[in-house]
Amino acid sequence: MRYYYFFLLFTIFNSCQYFEKQVPSEKELLQKELKAINWKEVDEYPSFVDCDKLDEKIQRQQCFFDSLTQLIQEKLQLDTLSALYPELDTIEVKVTVFPNSKMQFEPQFPKDSVAYDTIKIDSILHARLINFPKVNPALKQGIPVKTQFILPVIIKVE
Asked: What's the domain of life for this entry (predicted)?
């Protein structure tokens, strides 16, 4: 019986080591979490109020891009852009959606774009691409973030 108590006492003192767990430091946990996050993609894409009604993430994204392209095309049809530059059928527009829901548009021209006046086209785009409906910014981990993408905008000749 004496050996039993000795064995029990010995086990109790040694078992305390099993309960001591190494707690990772705050910096290690932060670094691990930051590595797990995919920084190249957002959790939710920007969207218009009408697109928020859709359930699927891909459908909301497609609704936003379709609606934005249609709005840009409608605003550019009001101008003489297609009459001034009949050879210009598509303009790529870099769209930036800021966390405060503001949008910025920058036309993207090819490097060898000497066939038309890029400054004039840029000024026409900045004058026409205003007063868009409210845009909900993209979300990453529940936080509004800035997003950028390039939309091809077809200029229709009527």
From this structure: Bacteria
Structure tokens at 36: 């797990």
* Every domain of the chain and the residues it spans: 42-154
- Give me the helices (H) in the chain, please: 2-19, 26-36, 57-77, 81-84, 118-128
pLDDT by 10s per residue, the chain, length 158: 667 777 776 676 665 555 566 777 888 888 888 788 777 788 888 988 888 888 888 888 899 999 888 888 887 776 566 666 666 677 788 999 999 989 988 888 766 655 566 777 777 777 777 888 889 999 888 889 999 988 887 775 55
Q: How far apart are CA 137 and CA 147, in angstroms?
A: 8
CA-wise closest residue to 47 among 30, 32, 60? 60
Give the pair of three-digit tokens for residue 109: 């021209």
Contact 118, 106 (CB under 8 A): no
Which residue in 35, 76, 60 sits closest to 139, CA to CA?
60
